């Protein structure tokens, strides 16, 4: 791929420009894009114009730019993240109705959990999760479930690395984390009371594909009180239903050649 | 931006490669990517490798590639499409519960309606809508609502262009379409019985921003029978609730500087 005089590919710069846009900074001036992407303003300006021309960014009447609908469409319509989310959706809706706070679907991506969906009721308890945003593996219920079933090398990196503290309840000790991961594999769920915010409890269970491999975590966030544990059976049943739908979808995809 | 010997920018080629992936073709070999993107196999192969390196595509163990989670994340986390969808979500869930088939949110994009969300009940009536997929403006209930409130030049292009037929009920006559658009502006909703599929009725109403500008269509798809019309008041109330949430969000975004 074509490289700039600095030896950097065009694609690298495109990715850096797209990375400049976040949930907190959805609309940016070109100067701000340049600063965040660490590019000269003239370069950023030229590349932004090109991205706008292709619909990947949209220019507002003020001259500032934001993520383009075309990019969302291209990234979403063939996305495995969205496919998994569509499969899980009826179950998440059922869970939301039952618990009345938050129901969500998390996927392991790199060394974090990435949320493919979050459904929330009005007036629900505090929740840091956002769709297409990430949380650390050791601190969130979804993350702990995914970490408990992750490859050994990833587990070791997290267990021996720095475990950031969010509240007095966050697990920040490697030995304790190792024990909790073993508990999760044995018990089939995790309940995190106040790990990310003292007022909230996260409960998560694994979702497995037809080979038994854990492919997602389904979770609910509820108030941190004595009733939280009562949601575990519902969540376990929900995960089983997602697994049933996943197996059916894999069968159908086989039929039309989507999966080899 | 850097151009190939053919004068085409790298970005043009990246877009063509991303466009190769569709809901029906989520996993592709490099040869198939090259064919769909109309690129030499060597070029496609090099660009796919670069896209995989940046996480925008993912290579499976078979060597075939699919849309990358990273691209979905970047495109989604700062997307106005997703923001609008999150605002509308509680209302769509309420509508889904009430009608028991499909509830959806459509946005005008170019000369088509692009669906930001589709929620469906188990065993619901047939529905061609998919998330991040498109339908023609003249043939879908959401499309008709958006077209009724679209700029005049877009209306004229559609009214004087070819109006594709899907069923015996599709509006394919320009003069009839013009009358229907006036009806929609007067009545505030559209009911399309069998326009896309004879078994289904689409009902759509406009969603307006704080200036009165129509920014979306909210719709339900139900069986084509006498009960369909009874859902109109519910849908109208749903649109009002989305408008209320939209105004509140604009106020909050003003406060943190998201919107000028």
UniProtKB/TrEMBL annotation, chains A, B:
Domain of life: Bacteria
Sequence ranges assigned to domain HTH iclR-type in this UniProt record: 8-69
Positions of the IclR-ED domain: 70-248
Pfam families for this protein: HTH_IclR, IclR_C
Keywords, in A-Z order: DNA-binding, Transcription, Transcription regulation
Gene3D superfamilies attached to this UniProt entry: 3.30.450.40, Winged helix-like DNA-binding domain superfamily/Winged helix DNA-binding domain (1.10.10.10)
Glycoprotein found in the keyword field: no
Descriptive protein name: IclR family transcriptional regulator
Protein species of origin: Actinomycetospora endophytica
